[in-house]
Design goal:
By secondary structure, this protein is mainly beta. It is built from 5 helices and 25 strands. It has a domain of 238 residues: TolB, C-terminal domain (Neuraminidase). Strands 6, 7, 8, 9 and 10 form a 5-stranded antiparallel beta sheet that branches. This is Glucose/arabinose dehydrogenase.
Length: 419
């Protein structure tokens, strides 16, 4: 991925995957035809989406013309290579019991999910905490079944929150994982409606990432639910990244018609993020050897359980951008800023930084440590003011919590461009 065309189109490392996606789309079209789906109401097989979720159905020469003087557009400047340090770390809130997901609300408040108590807490910029109540909060407590890594997990709000008030959460129930939503007014959550259910659950590899992309669609990261074969089974919602309309319907341009599956071959996805150009990234918990940071391309498979770490291209899988040994990372949430991808590490007990300028150029990236010594790190969120919010996770049953754990930390970044 060294030339501009490769960067703005399908990266070299995933070109083989495009062929796989095209084949899947062709199979979907044939099945639809056999079912008599050529009437006006039948869904159309979409074009293969490009990285970031943008689909193109125009011919390859759409921008070409026979007119004289047609000029090649000036390429956009690439992000600078840079380094970053944690210039200042401030404790926003402490004493949280197993925090998991975080969503930034308009006005600066944060909405935090507590995994085991199945509660949502609203945290003001000055650290004041208010418990979310109401019929939706009651339903969450009554229907969520915390067990191992399961419980009340990811939380997300769309860019339309100021007008619709919807809060989306990923929760583990008696039979499965589900994504539900309710309207939040102040600290009152209205009755819940199900966006998607039937996601396989397990005490480990339970997934839980939830985020809205720049395309306005809702994305969810799921685990393989301790059944590795689920990850390659396109009929299973386990071991996948899913893409939905906010109401739970399937977008017409998903790779497989009628399916929420966006990508497959994942072991346990707990972090999702996008850069300013729409490239999508996800963190991946490995088994014994390698954890991963991946660039996500619609319809691609990321190898699990056939491949852990690099080496998948020969099998038609996508190789990761970066790998860590499992004792260095066990990555959970991620945040993508203008300068880097910041990765929360549970077992590694630190925040890793991967330089975005290096990634966009297709050059090998070496992760650096931004912050350590704060215990297990569950999540990291880019705040609108340019700071990072770091969520510790030492009360999750696998850490050694301090008296004031768990904490929300606001980190001021000092970013320096390098040649």
């Amino acid at each position: 991925m060294t030339d501009r065309a490769a960067r703005r189109g399908v990266p070299k490392r995933v070109r083989v995957t495009v062929a796989v996606v095209a084949a899947l789309a062709a199979v979907g079209f044939l099945v639809a035809a056999l079912a008599g789906a050529f009437d006006d109401d039948a869904p159309r097989v979409p074009a293969v989406p490009m990285p970031g979720g943008a689909a193109s159905s125009a011919p390859a020469d759409d921008d070409e013309t026979d007119e004289p003087g047609d000029a090649t557009p000036t390429p956009e400047p690439l992000p600078s290579r840079s380094t970053a340090t944690a210039a200042d770390v401030e404790v926003v809130a402490s004493g949280l019991d197993v925090p998991w997901g975080v969503a930034a609300l308009p006005g600066g408040d944060l909405l935090v999910s507590l995994r085991d108590s199945a509660r949502l807490v609203r945290v003001a910029p000055d650290g004041e905490r208010t418990r979310v109540d109401g019929p939706g909060a009651d339903e969450l407590r009554e229907t969520t079944v915390p067990d191992g890594e399961g419980g009340l997990l990811g939380v997300a709000v769309a860019g339309t929150f100021a007008t619709d008030g919807y809060v989306y959460v990923y929760r583990t129930g008696e039979e499965d994982n589900a994504i539900v939503r309710g309207v939040l007014e102040g600290t009152t959550l209205g009755r819940l409606e199900t966006v998607l259910d039937g996601i396989p659950k397990a005490r480990t590899h339970d997934g839980g990432a939830l985020a809205f992309g720049p395309d306005g669609r809702l994305y969810a990261g799921t685990g393989d639910a301790t059944e590795p074969a689920n990850a390659q089974d396109l009929d299973s919602l386990a071991g996948k990244i899913l893409r939905l309309e906010p109401d739970g319907s399937v977008p017409a341009d998903n790779p497989l018609p009628g399916s929420p599956v966006w990508t497959s071959g994942h072991r346990n996805v707990q972090g999702l993020g996008w850069d300013e150009d729409g490239r999508m990234y996800a963190s991946e918990l490995g088994q014994d050897a390698f954890d991963e940071l991946n660039e996500i391309v619609a319809g691609a498979s990321y190898g699990w359980p056939d491949i852990e770490g690099t080496g998948g291209e020969a099998e038609g899988f996508v190789d990761p951008l970066v790998t860590w040994s499992t004792d260095e990372a066990s990555p959970s949430g991620i945040a993508v800023t203008r300068d880097g991808v910041y990765v929360a590490a549970l077992r590694g007990q630190r925040v890793w930084r991967v330089d975005l300028g290096t990634l966009v150029r297709g050059e090998p990236a070496t992760p650096t440590v931004l912050l350590d010594g704060v215990g297990r790190v569950r999540n990291v969120v880019a705040l609108p003011d340019g700071h990072l919010l770091v969520v510790t996770g030492s009360t999750d049953g696998r850490g050694d919590p301090a008296d004031d754990d768990d904490r929300l930390l606001r980190v001021r970044l000092q970013v320096t461009d390098v040649p």
